[in-house]
Amino acid sequence: MTLKVTLITGRTINQGANLENKTSSDYLEATAYCELNSKDAGFLGKPGSNVKVKSRHGEVIVKLKENNGNPDGIAFIPMGPWANAVIDPDTRGCGMPGFKGIPVEVEATNDRILLMKELIARYK
Amino acid sequence: MELLIKNGAVYDPKNGIKGDKTDISIKDGKIVDKVSSKASVIDAGGRLVMPGGVDAHSHIAGAKVNVGRIMRPEDTRSGLKPRTKITRPYTGYTVPNVYAMGYRYAQMGYTTVFEAAQAIMKARHTHEELEEIPIIDKGALTLFGSNWPTMDFVREKNMDKLAAYVAWGLLASRGFGVKVVNPGGGEMWGFGKNVTGLDDVVPNFDVTPRDIIVSLMKVNEMLGLPHSVHLHCNNTGKPGDYKTTLASMELAKQVRPSKDRQVLHVTHLTFNAMGGTNWGDFESKADEIANFLNNSENVTTDMGQLIFGSATTMTADGPLQYANAKLTHGKWGNGDVELEDASGVVPMYYARQVSVFSIMWAIGLELALLTKDPYKVLLTTDHPNGGPFVNYPEVIALLMSNKKRQEEIKTLHEAVHKRTKIPGIERELDFNDIAIMTRAGSAKVLGLLDTKGHLGAGADADIAIYDIQPDQIDPSVEHAKVKSAFSSAAYTIKGGEIVVKDGQIVATPMGRTFWVDASVPDQHTDIMMKDIRLKFKNYYSINLANYMVQDAYVTHPNVVKAGVISVEVS
Amino acid sequence: MAVITDALCPFCGCTCDDLTIVTEGNKIIEAKHACKLGAAKIMGHHRIKAPMMRTDKNGNFKEVSYEEAINETAKILVNSKRPLLYGWASALCEVHKKGILLAEEVGGIIDNTASVCHGPSTLAVHEKGLPTSTLGQVKNRADVVVFWGSNPVQAHPRHMGRYSVFAKGFFSDKGRRGRKIIVADVRKTETANIADEYIQVQQGSDYLVISALRAILSGHADVVPDAVGGVPKEQLVKLVDTLKAAKFGAVFFGMGLTQSQGRYKNIDNAISLIFELNSFTKYVIMPMRGHYNVTGFGQVCSWETGFATAVDFARGVPYYNPGETAANDLLLRKEADAAMIIAGDAGAHFPANSVRHLAKIPVVQIDPYWNPTTEVANVVIPTAICGIEVEGTAYRMDGVSLRYRKMIEPTHPTDMEVLDRITERVREIKGD
Amino acid sequence: MQTVTLKPKKEIKISVEAENISPDKFAGKTEKDIQSIEIWMGNRRTTIGELFSVKVEGSAPAADTKLVLEGDFSRVKRIGEGMSGGLMIIKGNVDMHVGAKMSGGKITVTGNADSWAGREMKGGELIIEGNAGYYLGAGYRGETCGMRGGKIMVMGNALDFVGEHMCGGEILVKGNAGILPGLSNNGGKIVIEGNTSRPGSEMAKGTIIVNGTVDEMMPVFKLEGTEAVEGVAYRKYTGDVIISGKGVLYVK
After folding, report:
1. In chain C, what residues touch A69 (CB-CB under 8 Å)?
2. Which long-range CB contacts under 8 A does B533-539 form with residues at least 24 apart?
3. CATH number at residue C330
4. pLDDT digits over B49-66, tens only?
5. Touching check for D10 and chain B: CB below 8 Å?
6. Is A95 on the interface with D (CB under 8 A)?
7. Which of B146, C129, C296, D156 has the lowest tally of Cβ within 10 angstroms?
8. Does D115 touch chain A if contact means CB atoms closer than 8 Å?
9. pLDDT tens figures, C7-56
């Protein structure tokens, strides 16, 4: 099924610890995932399975994770290239793109998560 | 390198020269008795020659100045001048960028400027900015009036420890002198409170503003610092504050100066000579302050003249600034510094037709005109509190021309007639008075009169030539010409180098930073440091090892030595 | 083996200055007292070895000399009509000064990573000012601390211990027990888990909630509806009482405010709340700055140009208007025709469309590490790591400047050296 | 009457700063004069003649000068900045700051205008037949006053912060407006025919009328009952109560 939720992005300690280590699998582990609470995640699959996150602005494959700190309908992806594939680029006259509050659709997928280099290669 | 300035109408108050045609010889950055025939020559052609201007109180660098810039992009977009091959871009009016700061002072013939307040903990920032201000010599006064160690040592009545702390604090901040702002009030503002007068007790520290001021004056003289204590009084900026100002000035009688200068400099009197009980019955009490100054020998002041238009108020007086922000309903910057002091920044617009501002405009002028000795009242605008320093020529013209004052008064709120004395004051200052208030006097107040503010042999070759001939102008009538000449120097010479010609910057050498290295007996420092180390262990949010300003931030130092001497306390 | 004490951490805006660094040879073997973030950076990762260039973005890099890479960089900048010089946050103030001079020389736009972090906080300061203090004031005095849209457990791990939650000080000798901790966020973060009170705000509604608090504080609870932004009115009324009861309150905010609906207006509103709370008791507010010296760039840029960031030098005088002159504005509008990215990673932290434009224009990267920006760069110049291999100045999140120590000797030229050489080459090409 | 027609010679990608395109700057000038007027493209100083073809008919003072801009001006900023009189028709889209600080005359944009249209406007008339971007009729960073006088009409939609810091004048948006219109309003009148959200925050003075739906109301207004404005019944609110504001917000 397709779950319609609001996406926010943000820092995490593992994302930060791998900030200078972005070609590594540790960085991918730390940033290429989407957190939902277990109720929302339950509609999509098991934690650790892949999901496709789609917005008006793009789509990206990331790993599903559970975090029950999230209220219903709120998805979280750590800041980084995977999150940025779907965020709202509009700077709304302030210079700041929309990293939080993006309507997205999340669905289960068998597609694999792109490596950092592959992800950026899409933009060339 | 040699340079000879011929045919100048020289005003050099320290050396008693009042408009005489005197040649000035310059060699290797200093004024000398004579130069060889190889010297380059500037023919001043009878034009006005003065020592380079010296400003003893201006906010030109550091945390609160930058807060002003960050708060005010609308100010930054005024005064723009694009970069040239010689100069970086100029920006801003009340809060100029570092480049405009140096260029504009030099263009007015000023060569030495002192930043009036830095907290030790934020001194590194002050010096980062000072390092980027071109041309002028500069220095910064260090805040001591609400510092926890100050209050501890005052409470213990241990002047040796206090002197050791002041000496160490000057070294830590590369500071030039002791600034005291609303003593005790800075600490109380930590909990949103304030002192209301000299005898309020600061909770937890058990000292009064009176104790703090007197103790700091004593150790200032014990250390024989070049400058005296530099005081921003308690209650500043409130109707009726002149009483606190007078009471604070009285305290100076308790201490004898260690040098040929005052023991207390009370700053920006426009904000401290206010009568009345509220903004409704607000009136000028500049006459009472002037009366005090006329009968006292150990206190000096500066005008802090108000300039109509845009200003940015900035001071370590945190509670005053919150009160100001409540009046303006506008932006409020607050910057308390742990264990040391407070600070605040509030934009202001001084409109002519507002009674309070009309009266404040009169206060600065009254003070300068009613005080007989110009050495006792320096010309400042407390930049950018009363207004930006680029308006000094306007102030000079006002002081030299009653006609101009009367023209101005016509445009002001009628309160200026009823609640000030300015309409009836006819005194007009002459070029010698102006040279004192902007050169010799400021240098004397700072304790730098040996090398600054005069044109005798041994002085720094800092010289301004203005495009007016004193014997052919009547400043009383031709005040516009006077203002224009002081706005744009024909020549500014800094350390023997021509930096301004016909009002344009032609060279941008780096000036020096003056700071005071005061020695005290090692055992006093050792005892004092025990307390300081505890403060860092328990209360500061950084380590002692990372506190003091390193040499890397003072790349062109001019170190003035001082140290413990015995002081007579009457 | 050598030991450096009182060393400063070059990771986040806390700039902890109590690290003990143990080195052996020219290698760091231990970073005592550092948190996970700081330790990761200090202990280091794989570095870019040598300068690289490629003629085509899909082509391979070839290693080149510094001289070649610097010459190419200068050519790219001089030929550009609208160069963007972006990044700067993981560099020292000494680098910023040189960067601003270079931006002036090439008529470029200089912007820093605050653009996607606390840039909106600066816009709010233009509106309302900033009632703040140094962190030691919070440590010594605070009895109420609010984290709004910020999550120090993940982003500033030692903030709570050193300054805000557990720290003990002169008037706060009870530490955590003497403080009320309030967290307002859209999800229950790890920081919320240690709070005394958690306010769950509906995503994008912070502005409304702050206005409701201001209305209640100003005695107008009557106009506030039963719930605002998902928060029940009773909870808001209670929160106002708690805030007012403080002797010293501090509000720390993060990207939960700067990046959500309303952007800087959320902070603008929060600053007004602080202004009004000061009529009752003492309050300060502070942004939780991310990179260790992102604050420093704003300081340097302000004293050099009068504007804190996003400064356009195209016409020789600084012009400033985020929304028009910030990095993503330029990239999304496809205005920039060249970019130099230094000490920041636009490739990783900009939206896809901005990265797409970077992929189309000549890009120079100056950085110690290989990251997504490298993938879209034409020229890559590796440099020494500021704050580890290079000493100099950085500003803590509260505006306290500190001098970073050198821990080990650099194996690459410093950013300062590289920028000096680029500027020199730019002047030669321009014939100045 | 003088008519000047400008057409871009080629596609403009790098932003052009064109405060010199205004009746005040063109009045009484020949084609050659106008061609040599300075204009900036990115960091390059160039001329109007380099970028645009110029056709001049007649010669007149600014008040009787009409500018016709044909072609793509969507990367040309600051057109008509500070304009004091005359007419300007921009046939198509235009970039940021069109009509900024204008004090008189009339500008018509037949397409869309990007952000800051009519910034700090003092007088005159600005008509945008398409959509407007952010900060329509707003101020500059840090200023306390945005639009002070004159009239702006947008036939389509406008984005966030319409009339921020407005101190006078009138703005009419026929379509929808983004969030926070009339923010920190200190005078003037804003009419939004369509929908909007969070109008009138920190409003001290002035009037805002919303004829569509208000998605989210600010919790800072006092409901004063209903009132008819030109025969239409509205719920009338006053506020912002936090700052004891005397602003009036009418919502249908």
Report:
1. 187-190, 192-193
2. B535/B148, B535/B149, B535/B339, B538/C168, B538/C169, B538/C170, B539/B148, B539/B338, B539/B339, B539/C136, B539/C139, B539/C140, B539/C169, B539/C170
3. 3.40.50.740
4. 999 999 999 999 999 999
5. no
6. no
7. D156
8. yes
9. 999 999 999 999 999 999 999 999 999 999 999 999 998 999 999 999 88
